[in-house]
Amino acid sequence: MTATNPLLQEGPAIPFHRIRGEHVEPGVREILRVGRERLEQLATDPAPPTFDNTLGALDDLTRWVAERLTPASHLLSVAETPELRSAYNEVLPEISQFWTRLTLHEGLWARLRAFEATDEATRLTGLARRHLEKTMLEFRRSGADLPPDRRARLEEIQVALSTLQQRFGEHVLDATAAWEYRVDDESRLDGVPAAARRRFRAAAKAAGHDGWLLTLDYPSVEPILKYARDRELRRTVFEAYTTRCRAGEYDNRPLVVDILNLRTELAGLLGYRGFPDYVLEDRMARDEARARGFTAELTDRARPYWQRDAARLREHAATLGLDPLQPWDVSFVSEHLRRTEYDLDDEALRPWFPLDRVESGLWELARRVFGLTVEEREVDEVWHPDVRHYDIRADDGVLLGSFYTDWFPRKEKRQGAWMNDFRSGGPRPDGGFDPHLGVICGNFTPPEGDRPALLTHREVETLFHEFGHLLHHTTSRVPIRSRGGLNVAWDWVELPSQIMENWTWEREALDLFARHHETGEPLPDELFDRMVRARRFMGGWQMMRQLSFGTVDLELHGPWARDLNGTGPDELMARVEERFRDFSPAPHFARYHILTSFTHLFSGGYAAGYYSYLWSEVLEADAFSRFRNEGIFNRETGRDYMESILSRGDSDDPEALFRSFLGRDPDPQALLDRNLGPVPS
């Protein structure tokens, strides 16, 4: 099995098309065996410790293991099968145990401390000094200085958390896939765009049914909530979507309580007041108090806009006979109000955003602004026929990396959009360059028959967003891999992604790709003008929604988690609902919070860090002002951004990188001006 296991295959290409559930257990165990063997060799190396044979060797070891484990976890996100899930869950505790034991390894920690005391270490400067300090901090934060009994408990917690978080995400995936709703009377779909109705019809036919079949994939949910005139149908879909995993086979409520308790215990073992202080120590916010102060200040500043938007929704709902406004009415009323005030319909924009043109326009934008060339290359080693593969080169011809795209929903694929790194490259000592490898995924509206995939403008923004993450990874020129690319503070990592969204609002940039899929005509000026005028539409409502998530996240992991004291799932859900009321236009709206399907917090990496989306948005809104002032295609500005931020990874403090590009500290007013406008009277 070892010789033929695709997880163990060496070479430039990852054989995704060959990886099956049967390969996971033996493959992962062999990777971990080799990793443990290399770890022992490093920890017991008789040679005096140097930067290269200690920190360099550790970097090589961790990268070798991580890059070989990643393909299996990636396939769980995009092509899950029962066999793959079962096999991965079998070895997941062993994976978690490996990473926990690495940072708790007494021999390795002794070698690192011995190197820290050498003359070579004291003379280190720049990136090498930063890497040493960061590595020592990471080990201490992982419990390297704990006594044996507390290290053992820490290992138990880490293994338990990895299992619980994996199960949380599986429950959301399964609950989403399990729900279907058959519509037998087409009149119930009045108002829903014809393209969506055709997709629902095709889904029913594929399932062997007559009529129309609705699911909880977002391309199915969105057109119902935004356009269906049938209020009861909207309610059915809305309630199913927002209350996933609250009961039954996929109940996530007990998992939330267990995860919070374990995270709090972990932080306490390591000497922190709570999980937020532990998480935020090495991020820009630094601690819970500053992060909560940031969300509180933005909430105060956004509240007048939110109150204005909520009043407009209630008033417009009344004109539509939807008084009082209900949670399942919000998207419908908001979209109707936007069409009324701006004569703008998301669906009306779709014909100008065919996916292939959007992609080619984005590649051209990357060439003009950053000097990058993106070219498609045929490969066989993909996990689904929808997947495409591209190479990305610098203006000097150097192959910076390659990436896959996977844009359409499937039952075996998780929801949302994301970027993942498969391999980290960078400059070699011999002057060459090892290319990076990554992937960007989404759940966009798929093509229909001979008609191409036509995106909403929000989907265009999402595509640009994920490409920004990909650029952060593939343009990294940091010679120490663990300090490059996406290995940065999480409240900094969203800047390169969110800043890319700005180009989707610029006329010059849209002219590269916003062309009608049938006629090739550019987006009409009057349609563009309406789109721009509507940009701030419901800005207060949208910002308050983000602030509600960030606030509850910090309180959930902070004061609430420190005071759970046997709190059960029902009591916790009630407490969360009560907190969301401060961000709701009426108390019962808070009932439909998404805690039990909030994968960002409980199976992703945003626990005690959801505020970082808005933190990064403050940074990118201000940073893009330089492009607005100097030209959105200004090559010199693009080069400066690349050299100051995009290619620099974690080679310096984020604050210093920001100042090197903009020449000053960030001003939050840029975000408020762009998204909200003048303060309501």
UniProtKB/TrEMBL annotation:
Domain of life: Bacteria
One Pfam family recorded for the sequence: TOP_N
Entries under SUPFAM superfamilies matching the protein: Metalloproteases ('zincins'), catalytic domain
Enzyme Commission identifier(s): 3.4.24.70
Cofactor comment: Binds 1 zinc ion.
Reactions the enzyme catalyzes: Hydrolysis of oligopeptides, with broad specificity. Gly or Ala commonly occur as P1 or P1' residues, but more distant residues are also important, as is shown by the fact that Z-Gly-Pro-Gly-|-Gly-Pro-Ala is cleaved, but not Z-(Gly)(5)
Top enzyme class: hydrolase
InterPro entries per UniProt: M3A_DCP, MetalloPept_cat_dom_sf, Neurolysin/TOP_dom2, OpdA_N, Pept_M3A_M3B, Pept_M3A_M3B_dom
GO molecular function: hydrolase activity
Similarity annotation: Belongs to the peptidase M3 family.
Protein name per its UniProtKB record: oligopeptidase A
